[in-house]
Amino acid sequence: MATGSHVMGSIARMEMKSDWSIPSHSHDFQEIVLIVAGQVETRMADKTSHAGPGMLKVHPRGVAHTEHAVGLDNIVLLCANFQAADDREVAAWPLLVPDRTGRIRMLMEWMVELSPPHDHASALARDGLLQAVALAIASAAAGTSDDLVLNIRAWVRAHITQPIYLDDLAKVAGVSRYHFNRIFSKGAGMPPMRFVREMRVDAARGLLLNTAMPLRAIAPMVGFADEFQLSRVFREITGQSPATLRRSTASA
């Protein structure tokens, strides 16, 4: 769909208390919601997402969802609705998009200033800003993979002693589980849980080569239940056992 087929409906800046919530509802239009302040949890299509400041939520037409504030902070949102000639483009957008540069917020704040349109020129300007927002969303969604891999690598390194699940990583990324799995695999060249296992094995390799600690001590330090799980995954990833690695290094 060409971006020119987005038709602006309304946009508003909304401020709510920390106990704000909306029961299950759907719209006969497309909606984008930028979080300016606070934390919002959304349940949509059997998926739960968490969005904080600088994250933009996408609500496709006709899809039921619930929303409520999380934490003690008041909520500030920029909410825009629009009509799309073809729902398939918006349906392809991720449910959460990071506004890393602040460009989307700037465009939406400008749209608020022009609302309601007082003349034909301001109405055309709002429609033009909407097209720019759509392009920014598509660009942000397409360009997240490299940054995403770096962010996830840093998070896994900081939590390597703990159990890590796909839902944890998707929540860190601020996107749906399905979208996270797709864009991360594309950016990293492997599925996210394989990436986690390889990071655990790399950390174990460093300890094997640089310390004399026994395998049973290394295992929990890199997130494995015991030395047997570590040995199995280590062999799966590297093609050799931890003991073989240590012997080959000692004899070199």
Quick description:
The protein is of the alpha+beta class and 252 residues long. It has helices at 87-92, 103-113, 120-142, 145-158, 166-173, 177-188, 192-210, 215-221, 227-238, 242-251; strands at residues 6-16, 21-25, 30-37, 39-44, 47-51, 55-59, 65-70, 75-84, 96-98.
Topology at a glance:
Layout: E1 6-16, E2 21-25, E3 30-37, E4 39-44, E5 47-51, E6 55-59, E7 65-70, E8 75-84, H1 87-92, E9 96-98, H2 103-113, H3 120-142, H4 145-158, H5 166-173, H6 177-188, H7 192-210, H8 215-221, H9 227-238, H10 242-251
Antiparallel strand pairs: 1-8, 2-7, 3-6, 3-8, 4-5, 4-7, 6-9
Tell me the CATH superfamily of the largest domain: Regulatory protein AraC
Average pLDDT level: 85
Domain tally: 2
CATH fold description of the largest domain: Jelly Rolls
How would you describe what is shown here?
This protein is an alpha+beta fold. The chain has two domains: about 5-140, Jelly Rolls; about 145-250, Homeodomain-like (Arc Repressor Mutant, subunit A), CATH 1.10.10. It contains ten helices and nine strands. The strands form two sheets. The protein has a five-stranded antiparallel sheet. The longest helix is centred in the middle third of the chain and has 23 residues, at about 120-140.
